[in-house]
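in:
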């Protein structure tokens, strides 16, 4: 797994506080190789639909072939997101918008690229802010498989 980097290509600190980030900072994760077994295992447990479970059924579906559940892609995204943007006190979510422009396939090698797009300091709670992060999940060709816009609570070292 590659070390997370900011927009300058510098390795990110092990734990990031509010003072360590700025709008425009970019973080890139390591990779996760997908395969048909993972797609089917996840689907059996959490999203048992034919286009996630059976290649033949998937061929005749809207997807035209075996496709990972969007929730599977989201779970992998979360794993890669957390490892590449190690926020102090954890990644505390306050809401997300998620879209899946194209299905994740069995031969995809996924990575995420996250960019901080907004930082809104809390008026009522000094030492914390609402940080908006756009995270793109891309395959080995750089093709987007998911777009996630997250609002997360981030803390300063002092936390007021």
């Amino acid at each position: 797994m590659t070390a997370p980097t900011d927009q300058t290509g510098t390795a990110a600190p092990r734990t990031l506080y509010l003072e360590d980030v700025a709008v425009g900072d970019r973080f890139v994760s390591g990779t996760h190789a997908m395969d048909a077994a993972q797609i089917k295992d996840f689907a059996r447990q959490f999203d048992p639909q034919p286009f996630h479970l059976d290649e033949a059924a998937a061929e005749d579906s809207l997807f035209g072939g075996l496709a990972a559940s969007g929730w599977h892609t989201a779970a992998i995204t979360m794993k890669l997101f957390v490892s590449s943007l190690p926020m102090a006190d954890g990644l505390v979510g306050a809401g997300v918008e998620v879209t899946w422009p194209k299905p994740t396939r069995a031969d995809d090698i996924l990575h995420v690229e996250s960019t901080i797009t907004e930082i809104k300091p809390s008026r009522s709670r000094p030492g914390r802010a609402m940080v908006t992060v756009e995270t793109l999940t891309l395959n080995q060709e750089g093709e987007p498989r998911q777009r996630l816009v997250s609002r997360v609570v981030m803390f300063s070292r002092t936390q007021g």
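note: The CA atoms of residues 125 and 143 lie 39 Å apart.
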